[in-house]
Design goal:
473 residues, 13 strands, binds 4-nitrophenyl beta-D-glucopyranoside, Glyco_hydro_1_beta-glucosidase
Length: 473
């Protein structure tokens, strides 16, 4: 494995984005600082039974106070971009009306610090921390929430549009709708399948309305939507299993992709959903707005689901840690089976071929939009060893394999512009708390000390060279 015995390596196109991602609630802490309001996640984590070990994110990894150190760390790793989200209740404590200047100011300082270090800020407007006041008014099942979001987006874009070019609207609307309002494993923890469908549409509408508002403000911003996609396989070739695959692919992938990129909901998915509720809340003109052209599609990819028409089996690729319902509204009887692949600490099967499938499918079925991988990564049981290092060989191998797949997809003609590892640092993994570590950087929670894992050192090398080392001969 000496350098000179390696083949020349796998070079990515010039300008390829080498990034890492986080989200506000998972890293910031400082939940009571500088006039921040309450989000649904603050409420949710402080009710029993919602988070493993009763953990909360009041302190998280204290990024609100340590952002300068964290930006230095990104620059040291040679990242060309950093994807983060802004906390709505920090900026608009009640989700509407007056701005909390101190909250907004934090993001101005963060963005200025990133720019000063040559790291391009990629700003996500919504990563699940809905102001509690808006949930009290009904939350995402209410159409008005989408309008409140568009106002919020316009406000942030007006203030930061001069220094942030890359914007994305809603992170993973599937999770926000179906984990938040159907299975209840995410905030606000409701188990109301019909309301979850309304939430999904209103999250899409929020994307459309906010995109329209931001486009009217300035023409030079690059605006994207963000979806979490899974490769889906039927367990067998039986008709029942193939129908199960159609249903899960429909609700997880096509419902959002077709809306954002074709301005239409897939008919078969609407038919599945109409078994649960009528869809009168989808108004004329909504889909034209939702399907307005995008500059980038942000794709989060983690795993593959293997599904069967026979009910049963854990939701293996994303089993909930707490007592919850099914997020598969209208298709609750689909079974999730073990595909026989190695798994991460989340129990998620590792399958980079699924990423290839997704990327080539996007390029084929939705050819007009450039792509970035906005999240990809894995939790493993990391250990800080006596040498002061974290030898996370499995994570390194996971990211290496998925990046090689990205390279192959680019070679096959897929317009893939960048890659963001999830996550830059270990952080609050939602209902799983701090037990699941996704970071390239290890966080020693008692001291908040940041330690570069082996995967971070390796990723820095890749970012620096703009490519991956060749396989050892
Ligand atoms: C994504 N599922 O969440 C999020 O965007 C991140 O905030 C999160 O930390 C990361 O992936 C790792 O979990 C997901 O159950 C959470 O299918 C749950 C699911 C998918 C994505």
């Amino acid at each position: 494995t000496r350098a000179e015995t390696r083949s020349p390596g796998l070079m990515f196109p010039t300008g390829f984005v080498w990034g890492a991602a986080t989200s506000a609630y998972q890293i910031e802490g400082a939940v009571a600082a500088d006039g921040r309001g309450t989000s649904v996640w603050d409420t949710f984590v402080n009710q029993p039974g919602h988070v493993v070990g009763g953990e909360n994110a009041d302190v998280a990894i204290d990024h609100y106070n340590r952002y300068r150190e964290d930006v230095r760390l990104m620059a040291g790793l040679g990242l060309t971009a950093y994807r983060f989200s802004v906390s709505w209740p920090r900026i608009q404590p009640d989700g509407a009306g007056a701005v909390n200047a101190k909250g907004l100011d934090f993001y101005k300082r963060l963005v200025d610090e990133l720019l000063a270090h040559g790291v391009d800020p990629w700003l996500t407007l919504y990563h699940w921390d809905l102001p509690q006041a808006l949930e009290d008014a009904g939350g995402w099942p209410e159409r008005d929430t989408a309008s409140r979001f568009a106002d919020f987006a316009a406000l942030v874009h007006d203030e930061l549009g001069d220094r942030v070019t890359n914007w994305s609207t809603v992170n993973e609307p599937w999770c926000a709708a179906f984990l938040g309002y159907a299975s209840g494993e995410h905030a606000p923890g409701r188990r109301e399948p019909a309301a979850a469908i309304r939430a999904a549409h209103h999250l899409n509408l929020a994307h459309g309305l906010s995109t329209q508002a931001m486009r009217a403000q300035r023409a030079d911003s690059l605006i994207g939507g963000c979806v979490n996609l899974y490769a889906i396989s039927p367990a067998t070739g039986s008709e029942a299993d193939r129908d199960a695959a159609r249903r899960i692919d429909g609700l997880q992938n096509r419902f959002f992709l077709d809306a954002l990129l074709k301005g239409a909901y897939p008919e078969d998915v609407l038919a599945d959903l109409r078994a649960v509720t009528d869809t009168d809340f989808i108004q004329d003109g909504d889909l034209a707005l939702i399907g307005a052209p995008l500059d980038t599609l942000l794709v989060n990819y983690y795993s593959r689901f293997t599904v069967s028409g026979a009910p049963g089996g854990a939701r293996s690729a994303a089993a909930a840690p707490t007592d919850s319902g099914s997020p598969w509204v209208g298709s609750e009887r689909v079974g999730f089976v073990n595909g026989g692949r190695p798994v991460t600490a989340m129990g998620w099967e590792i399958d980079d071929s699924g990423l290839y499938e997704i990327l080539t499918r996007l390029a084929r079925d939705y050819p007009s939009v450039p792509l970035v991988i906005s999240e990809n990564g894995a939790a493993f049981d990391d250990e800080l060893t006596a040498d002061g290092r974290v030898h996370d060989q499995e994570r390194l191998a996971y990211i290496d394999a998925h990046l090689r797949t990205c390279h192959a997809a680019i070679e096959a003609g897929v317009p893939l512009r960048g890659y963001f590892a999830w996550s830059l640092m270990d952080n609050f993994e939602w209902a799983w708390g701090y037990g699941k570590r996704f970071g390239l950087v290890y966080v020693d929670y008692p001291t908040q000390r940041r330690v570069l894992k082996d995967s971070a050192l390796w990723y820095a090398e890749a970012a620096r060279h703009g490519g991956l080392p060749g396989a050892a001969e």
